[in-house]
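Sequence in, structure out. Go.
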Amino acid sequence: MRDAPASAPRVLIYSHDTFGLGHLRRSRAIAHAIVAAERGARVVIVSGSPFVDRFGFADRVSAVRLPVVTKRVDGIYAPFEPGSALDDRIAERAAIVAATAEAFRPDLTIVDKEPTGLHGEFLPTLERLSVQGGKCVLGLRDILDDGERLAPEWARKGAVEAIERYYDEIWVYGVPRIHEPLRALPLGPATRLVYLGYLRREVPDWPPGRSEPALAGAPFLLVTPGGGGDGAGLIDWVISAYETDPGLPLPAIVAFGPFLDADTRTAFLARIDRQPGRLSAITFDSEIEHLMSRAAGIVAMGGYNTFCEILSFDRRALLVPRTEPRREQEIRAVAAEALGLARVLHGGPDAGRGRGAARMAAALRGLPDQPVPSRFVEPGLLDGLGGVVERLRALLADPAAGPSPGPPFVESRAEPCLGCAHP
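Output:
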């Protein structure tokens, strides 16, 4: 840890956070890495997640919650409160973001995924930040969507123009060997794109009063669809496999996720209760790393944060990706399988019960015997958090700072981008 500068860095992280937990968990990991490395640094996360208050934050990290806007399964945004207007919610959110930035006066702003914010809500703040002179970077997960979908979406939002006007760098929390998320976009030659590596996760300290779910005391599989809002098909498929095959060797703990519909959760619990000693369930665990690090295998849809945890804890994984409304999970899963990092069960979680249950059962049987991800070696694969700190220091120390010449930064790929090559 370096000594505090004359003015300890102030970092603002904006994350629109309308669906699931991924954006919030990624922002939290980055914030914690910054305050751990930079004595005196302060980070404010501006988040639209309805679950921001369910997570603990390190000292000198605080969160500002935006009015919640939900994202439907078809990708369309809608107000959380029935009868309210989306435009009113966006205006309210934009005012809170702008007021927070004005009061905090960040030295560096990290914008998560959306260059202009949800429905353009971050544009006024971008304009103000450019006047104040602070640095601004766009932070992207490894995969956004395939190019045919992403290019028209970003054109409609004016994202490329915003990047060229307001952003000093683009940070990709991944490696180009797996995917190049902006390959299909017409970015100008002055755009500074830096691949930092995936964000390594650690097992947090054991909190007072934490209790473990049933079946966690012996070897088990962990089934996690992330936030759970689109995970019902995966959960149904796994339960069906246990109902169909009484000889599955390992029990499973199912983490529903807080966004799973309450009626669906109740129906799943009734089925799980009929499989004593073989299935158990939890709704939500803000420190699920404790379970992930001990699981004999992980069954997941392949979201970004879960993938980081699979790599960090070197867990065998079966990925069952969704393909709508984005192909992000499918692209990641296919690339991961090609490199030997995980295995993929194709066909999507809505293959359902009956004949599809046998396919899932066979995959669950083979999961504990898969190779672990660490058999694949890629320089800088899990160096993302260290890369964030290095780029922060470089940007705040030297206005003209360029990308570091060595690891963990990769500016051109030496081998084909597996995710980009997938049709």
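Check: The chain has 13 helices and 15 strands. The domain at 221-375 is CATH 3.40.50.2000 (Rossmann fold).
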